[in-house]
Amino acid sequence: MVTWTNKHWGALIGALLLLVITWLGFGAAALVVLGGVVGYFVGSFLDGELDVEDIRQRAQGTRASRQPR
Question: What are the structural domain ranges in the chain?
Answer without folding.
Answer: 6-59
